[in-house]
Amino acid sequence: MPVTVRIPTPLQRLTNGQGEVACEGKSVTELLANLERSYPGIKERICDQDGKLRRFVNVFVNEEDIRFLQGDQTAVKDGDEVSIIPAIAGG
Amino acid sequence: MALSKEQIARYSRQLILPEVGVKGQERLLRASVLIVGAGGLGSPAALYLAAAGVGTIGIIDRESVAHSNLHRQIVHATGEVGRPKSLSAQARLHALNPEVVVVPVQEALTAANARHVAAPYDLVLDGSDNFPTRYLVNDACVLLSKPLVHGGVVHVEGQVMTILPRRSACLRCVFPEPPQPGAIPSCQEAGVLGSAAGVIGTIMAHEALKVLLGLGEPLVNRLLVFDGRMSRFREVVVRRDPACAACGDATTIQERTVSEETVCHEEGAWPRSR
After folding, report:
1. Which of B171, B176, B230 is opposite residue A19, by nearest beta carbon?
2. pTM confidence score
3. Would the ipTM clear 0.90, i.e. be above it?
4. Burial A9-26 (b: 16+ CB within 10 A, else e)
5. Which of B7, B69, B260, B269 allows an S-S link to B3, with CB 3.0 to 4.6 Å?
6. A90 → chain B, closest CA residue
């Protein structure tokens, strides 16, 4: 059972409209690399050129912000749920 | 302040709630809320707050009602197209509940006026439609130590959280900086389903009423995320960041920082959704 990654609406055009995708990886870094392999262009929306998480996007592993865990080295395992959540301004 | 016969009749269904009662209703009647933006979020929020009897509701919006607003901005009517939104909302809220004092402010919220505009209110509800205003509202509320209900919506997705400055995560604790222009599509670019804005705006009103009444537990240190495709809510844990530029231990956000962001807004450099 792979990791389930929740894709926010603004990025769903990169995942063929899917709001949830299955992905493999042992850490958030690996997960994002594999996500990029399946859905080219998605990583640069989440990370900057240095590979650091953009400051208006957060990644949560099972409801916990990875910034308060081990950052992109945070471990993930099969069955975990990873949410990519950007800031939203619309009203 | 004793409730009149009319007030007892009007508010009877919430007066019988043990969490409200006469004391709670009196608290609401004395309370004041500033709504930033009479748009897709501000519309349902304003209607519910006025209906519940929140005594004073300020509405700041510099724009006028357009046809493209009407599918979601339900406080406005077709006949109000072209009229300033703050005045259109005032008329509708007055018709709904004449005893609510509505203060229309037909201006943009800027670094120069934000603190002055927000200061008289007990709570701020941010229904604005662009990042610079959202960060400005956040920073002003932190500086004023004013409770803030934050919400956003785009497409069929939304987010809500309640911010008790310096006691819980603020917007910058969660998202330290706004995105570059164009990085996140606005409602204008991505579209928005009116009912999704209704879901988020109504939860924002609910949060405001809870904070004013001291009812239950507000969405503090929790970001509620609505996935309108699945009609599913999820919650993630957010934390106050000691290094936060707005509410952290060594605050760096002062008036000047706020001003720079607002200049960018006024030059129209950011996508807008109206």
Report:
1. B230
2. 0.92
3. yes
4. bbbbebbeeebebebebe
5. B7
6. B129
